[in-house]
Design a protein that fits this description.
The chain has eight helices and five strands. The protein is mainly alpha-helical. The chain folds into two domains: about 130 residues, Resolvase, N-terminal catalytic domain (Rossmann fold, 3-Layer(aba) Sandwich); about 45 residues. The radius of gyration is 25 Å and the shape is elongated. The chain starts with a strand and ends with a helix.
């Protein structure tokens, strides 16, 4: 089982896996399905042997990349391990189940790309509105201008000013540089 957000719960998946009679349950909490190397996934893959069946609640809990999902399926088949996705009726012991697995893997990757595209579009729109993205700035534009003037007009060093501001010299230098670049374009 897997949830990508620390605020999500695995309860629904756990109940379904227990009801399906799973002997051992592995999980990844707070990890994206786009990440292929995950502690829980790596552990279950290491433990599986011929005759076992890997059961997931839903295909996208296993992964979001078509290539990765198809590689996993091929690896499982080579090792004599079957695969089931409970909510989607996928069962790789049948030809129809293998076909459905391949189709759903394509849709899982498509959804991941759609999420990425929507996120990028939202960030671009926010940038156009002048919204700062990322961590909060440690040094405001006004502070950066003040520190730049002090560097130019006094004998104070960047290290001294950074210590005074409670930031690293690199952070202060970047803030001053960014503010100077903005002023150069005005």
């Amino acid at each position: 089982m897997r949830v990508s957000d620390h605020d999500q719960t695995e309860a629904l998946q756990l109940d379904a896996l227990k009801a399906a009679g799973c002997d051992a349950i592995y999980g990844d909490h707070g990890v994206s399905g786009a990440v292929t190397a995950r502690k829980g996934l790596d552990e279950v893959l290491e433990e599986l042997s011929q005759g076992d069946t890997l059961v997931v609640w839903k295909l996208d809990r296993l992964g979001r990349s078509t290539v990765h999902l198809l590689q996993l399926l091929a690896e499982l088949r080579e090792r004599g391990v079957d695969f089931q996705a409970l909510t989607q009726g996928i069962d790789t012991t049948t030809a129809v189940g293998r076909m459905l697995y391949g189709q759903l893997a394509v849709f899982a990757e498509f959804e991941r790309e759609q999420i990425s595209d929507r996120t990028k579009a939202g960030m671009a729109a926010a940038r156009k509105r002048g919204k700062h993205l990322g961590r909060p700035r440690m040094i405001t534009a006004e502070q950066a201008r003040r520190y730049a003037r002090r560097l130019e007009t006094t004998r104070v060093t960047l290290d001294d000013l950074a210590a005074e501001a409670g930031v690293s010299p690199q952070t202060l230098s970047r803030a001053i540089h960014n503010e100077k670049c903005k002023n150069d374009y005005r």
